[in-house]
From TrEMBL:
Listed PANTHER family: DUAL SPECIFICITY PROTEIN PHOSPHATASE 12, DUAL SPECIFICITY PROTEIN PHOSPHATASE 12 FAMILY MEMBER
Transmembrane regions listed in the UniProt entry: none
GO terms of molecular function: protein tyrosine phosphatase activity; protein tyrosine/serine/threonine phosphatase activity
Keywords: Hydrolase, Protein phosphatase
Annotated active site: C136 (phosphocysteine intermediate)
SMART domains attached to this UniProt entry: DSPc
Tyrosine-protein phosphatase domain boundaries: 1-192
Enzyme class: hydrolase
Protein name: protein-tyrosine-phosphatase
Length: 361
């Protein structure tokens, strides 16, 4: 039996969903399925005797979903653009129910963040029209993570308070640690997935590092646009011409030949002095002198950019050289590089401040 979380909002497992889709329900009108496959065949593979009729409404892929088209490279989602974001279909007895299926695996490394917007919006809309069941396989991790995020956004609750509140309805919920971490980021970004936020940029880089470590091919579609090419700055296909009246954008150029190598939006900030070699008394909260410790970072770290041919070739580490004059600009290492301030950045795409000039575009 599904558990009631809020008015018109239920959490359940796969057998709750199978029962509702197979036999109909006097109450549930919408189903949000969070399973490793979006296809309804997942149910028949799980229990051969089941037969659930469906009629497709639409399938939305990451690249066509509109989540990518704000402006420039900093607004990219961390999902590759050919990935299915969700499938929407009429389902169940007399095709009376609307099912949204989102392919998410219950793994700590799974990208939950980039599915939140579509899931939370679906829950929101469904509750206006009827009642929604949010389910995964066991009803413990994925569905709980999504409902926690929903409660966070709709009731402005911290991750801890939202989860605590959900536990009052359903004791057994327990999102995996990777999901909890991402829900914390969601809270820190103000209950939205802000692609321009440093928190999101670090997350995006970590997702990319995870896929590299799994041996997946990292092609340049995952990289930021080359700011040295005219179309990258203007992005004409996306209609994102820079606003004439806007403040100049800080940019980094090769010191030797002045070629543009990175924009401010490509920079992935880190907190100076935090990381593996950082001792307790350096932490922001635990500084015994009550004043911030001054750190000097001799490098900037950026997202991988399309001019970084050595990265595209798949090496674990290597030099980053200017595409125009071949001057050495920095170094990259998928396993991480330690900044002069002590912080570890993983993966790292590093430009030495001594090799680049800061100017504007
Ligand atoms: Zn640093
Ligand atoms: Zn150069």
């Amino acid at each position: 039996m599904p558990y009631l979380v809020r008015e018109r909002l239920f959490i359940g497992n796969i057998s709750d969903a199978a029962d509702i889709l197979g036999n109909g329900s006097s109450e549930i009108t919408h189903v949000l399925s969070l399973l490793s496959s979006a296809s309804i065949s997942f149910f028949t593979e799980w229990r051969g005797s089941l037969s659930i009729p469906t009629k497709e409404i639409r399938k939305v892929y990451v690249g066509s979903s509109g989540v990518d088209d704000d402006s420039g490279s900093c607004s990219k989602s961390s999902l590759s653009s050919d990935k299915l974001l969700y499938a929407m279909e009429y389902a169940g007895k007399d095709l009376k129910m609307v099912r949204m299926a989102v392919p998410i695996r219950d793994m700590e490394s799974e990208n939950l963040l980039d599915y939140l917007d579509v899931c939370l919006d679906f829950i929101e809309e469904s509750r206006k029209e009827g009642s929604v069941l949010v389910h995964c396989f066991a009803g413990v991790s994925r569905s709980a993570a999504i409902i926690t995020a929903y409660l966070m956004r709709s009731e402005r609750l911290s991750q801890e308070d939202a989860l605590e509140s959900l536990r009052e309805s359903c004791e057994s919920v327990s999102p995996n640690d990777g999901f909890l971490e991402q829900l914390k980021m969601f809270e820190e970004m103000g209950f939205k997935v802000d692609h321009a936020s440093p928190i999101y940029k670090r997350f995006r880089l970590k997702v990319l590092g995870d896929s590299y470590n799994r041996g997946e091919k990292i092609d340049s579609s995952n990289f930021g646009a080359d700011p040295g090419l005219p179309e990258a700055v203007a992005s004409p296909e996306k209609g994102a011409y820079p606003d004439e009246n806007r403040n100049p954008i800080p940019a980094f150029r090769c010191k030797k030949c002045r070629r543009l190598v990175a924009l401010q939006e490509n920079v992935v900030d880190h907190i100076p002095g935090e990381g593996e070699t950082c001792f307790g008394w350096h932490k922001r909260s635990g500084n015994p002198y009550g004043k911030p410790v001054e750190f000097d970072c001799s490098s900037i770290f950026v997202e991988p950019l399309r001019w970084m041919k050595a990265v595209e070739e798949g090496a674990l580490e290597g030099k980053l050289s200017c595409v125009h004059c071949d001057a050495r600009l920095g170094y990259f290492n998928w396993s991480g590089i330690q900044c002069s301030c002590g912080s570890w950045i993983t993966p790292a795409f590093q430009l030495h401040k001594s090799r680049v000039d800061i100017s504007t575009v």
